[in-house]
Amino acid sequence: MTEPGTPRNDTITVGSTGTQSSRRGRANLRDYVSTCREFSWDAARSQLAGLPGGGLNIAYEAVDRHAAGPGAHSIALRWLRADGGVVESSYADLAEASSRFANVLRAQGIKRGERIGVLLGRCPELYIAVLGILKAGCVVAPMFSAFGPEPVRQRLDIAGAAALITSEPLYRRKVAPIRDALPALRTVLLTDGGSGGVDLPAAMAAADPDYELTPTTADDPALLHFTSGTTGRPKGALHVHGAVLAHIVTARFALDLQDGDIFWCTADPGWVTGMSYGVIAPLCLGVTLISDESEFDARRWYRILTAHRVSVWYTAPTALRMLMRSGDTLPEGTDLGCLRFIASVGEPLNPEVVVWGERVLGHPVHDNWWQTETGAIMIANFAATQVRPGSMGRPLPGIEAAVVRRGANGRALVRDGTIDFAGVGEIGELALRAGWPSMFRAYWDQPERYQRCFVDGWYLSGDLARRDGDGYYWFVGRADDVIKSAGHLVGPFEVESALMRHPAVAEAGVIGTPDPVAGEVVKAFVLLRSGVRPSEELRSELTAFGRRALGAVAPKQVEFVSSLPHTRSGKVMRRLLKARELGLPEGDVSTLEGAP
Ligand code: ATP
Ligand code: MG
């Protein structure tokens, strides 16, 4: 970043222990270049079953096709209860329960195309409801169960949800207080009965176990996902049934999912990662998925990986940083012998974490990049190729990515109606050639905003990146987060990653603060590893450490904090750090959108 175009971490590779090469023979994607050359979405369509009478439905691909074949009694879902209990459901169980659920919706007068909010913790009813809603031809609007009443109201309102499925305690705490403000909401289904809604267990017991699937097509809406709201008010991105092809293909290529895998995606299905890869993709591929009712706990997580023989693990940088923070010595009894592949998504993955994964967990962490809008993984480090720590990897087969130049107004430069591409190493906006199957089809109720995302047949992601000479992409920052200091363009991620290389640092959040001379100066908020005390000496040491690593773009100010603000989906919320720094009310952080 000091010198755009000289990727600092290009030269570091992991996998020298031989784990990479021994896996190459078994990986789904063995030869990246030839697979990309030969791949076509049309040909990949043969991986779909399709509805018996024609058409496409995600729930059919996820459960019914298995329930009708030899996989019927394989374990689809292994639910780990907070109290230590384990509940398993086979593909046949999920197929039947979701058909009952679709019949319940029909009996309640819910019509095709209507949006149904799902506000549930991780429990079997969530999976059943999602599949049932899809079978009924309605649109799933997932919501994170830890949201308070206002975010719930906001999302149900944006979606114009006709029905909501939730539990009685969640209803009482989060929905009852705002129900009057939601005139479109006709029906509430309660997973444990209670006043205020339909008694779901009773309705399910009375419902027909067979349901003739609504004949949806690849272009019918299926999911309305809300973005994380990292840069402002969340947007509702609409996805169609046809997206399932991208879920299947990318789970094979980027997550290396194979027959017999035990797969754990730690993201909550209230977010796009938890839905695309925590529900849809693994079920479509017929593997066993793990769902943990509890929240993050280092010991519990190591226990889950060990006891449930997890082979593929998809998680997030924040969680990995927390595991790192708890030390390099794994709890006694931990055995990661079944683990074959670790991947991460959601925010930049510091090179330090990749290397730690290889050293302590026995595998490097494979970063991949995508967004709510893209519906599926677009750029990844693959199982059979060496990980480049700090890089997001290369585009998936079937995905064309590019870095485009931006003008002074921050928008992509277009000359004579054609987009202007950046050269190798040059920072620009990450763009994707429009038309992959899981591309979002609308921002709900915001057609102009949707249109603005596309220029000359390319989708503009709003993230800044650069591409090296080998075609690997390096994340620089969100267009809104980038700091301009004394003529340098500084991506907060690179500064954060440099600081994390210091043994005292567990996590860092970096922002620009106004400065009369430099425009902005780089300020770092630093969370120390457990047991390390803040001191003036440490502050000076970190400042010097940063200067050695980063030169002119090193943080001028370092502030120790006892915690860093994260979005509900676990991302460092730099805009909140900035609001605090500038003394703005935290509720007003959306005013920072587009701030220099
Ligand atoms: P909003 O759009 O509401 O501000 P959001 O962008 O955080 O929220 P998501 O769609 O959940 O909502 O997140 C996608 C974004 O997360 C990407 O655009 C990127 O900024 C970041 N991200 C995802 N994966 C990676 C990655 N591997 N490296 C760096 N950043 C990533
Ligand atoms: Mg976004």
From TrEMBL:
Keywords: Acetylation, ATP-binding, Ligase, Nucleotide-binding
Gene3D superfamilies: 3.30.300.30, N-terminal domain of ligase-like
Positions of the AMP-binding enzyme C-terminal domain: 494-571
InterPro entries per UniProt: AMP-bd_C, AMP-bd_C_sf, AMP-binding_CS, AMP-dep_synth/lig_dom, ANL_N_sf
Record-linked Pfam families: AMP-binding, AMP-binding_C
Feature: compositional bias, Polar residues: 8-22
SUPFAM superfamilies: Acetyl-CoA synthetase-like
Molecular function terms, GO-annotated: ligase activity
Annotated AMP-dependent synthetase/ligase domain residues: 66-444
Coiled coil: none
Chain spans, region Disordered: 1-25
Enzyme Commission code: 6.2.1.1
Official protein name in the record: acetate--CoA ligase
Organism in which the protein naturally occurs: Nocardia rhizosphaerihabitans
Organismal lineage: Bacteria, Bacillati, Actinomycetota, Actinomycetes, Mycobacteriales
